[in-house]
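As a warm-up, study this chain.
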Amino acid sequence: MPALRKHCSHRASGACAALLLSLLSGPSHAQVTPGQLSSNTVIGGNVKQHADAVLAIMSYTTVPDVTTSNLSVNNGATGNPSFGQTQFGGGFTLSRSFPLYMEGTLAYSRYDPTFVATDGAQQRAVPTKWNTFSGTVGLGWDFRITDELAFRPILNGTIGRVSSDLKVGQTIFNRVTDSNLQFLENGSLNAYGYGGSLMLDYEHYRENYEIDAELRATDIYLRSFGSTSEAVQGSATAQQLSLWTRWRAPTGWHALDRPVRYVLEAAYSHYFGDSAGVLGFNDLTSLGVGLELDSGRYPVIVTRTRAMVRYVFGRNVHGVSFGFAMSF
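Now compare it with the structure written out below.
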């Protein structure tokens, strides 16, 4: 079943807050090959390989991105592993006179792989729950190419933690000392990341319409550190190329003494490095439509309010989301 997700996002200069309820689901094409049965063995997948996949999945939340900020994936054949993530984030440029760009994201993801363990005589499924929290910040500077086009290099840093919660009672695992199982039972993976992004930001504003577009390339290296369980130490590389566009124009209706605008949005993200294929796809596309109210004539902190409906699709995954945003 699809999961209910929330999202906050912002694009280009200014500040905004948003709330997005998303239903996005699809089958993962990943296949799990059982290993040979032996004493104190986890089969149905290697724990470190799955943990490396979680580290790669963490890379999806390193930048504000409408295509992956709300995502729920299940294996259509077995329901394992199920994955869902929620991201809150945004970015803005302080001003034209001091074009410092700042961005940040906070993300939560849930990954529920199921393993099989044996002591040589008995086998039992091991349901686990892996919860991931991550945060990313970025600092950049706008170099004006034209009055409407800016080149923006960004330095990024991220930190995250994966916690494993093994929910089984007093079973055959009481005597197991395998390091894989030690991680599954209340283990953790701590990770930090560093890298950067290059962005072209285009803003074409006219009285009758507004166009925003961003082309962004991101490369961030993630690595485990600190008290990470020995069985799952590793690294991953987040490499992403994305294009985001938005068109706004008056509908002919009026509200709050200002025109009501319709909004059209399109976004595309392609993933390289360890992010590619980890959830069964290499790219995602998002198409959105919505309405926007302008309250700038009144002495309130909120200047614009926007409602969006988006359709997101890619190989093995598709879904629909509803978004609500406020600009200040």
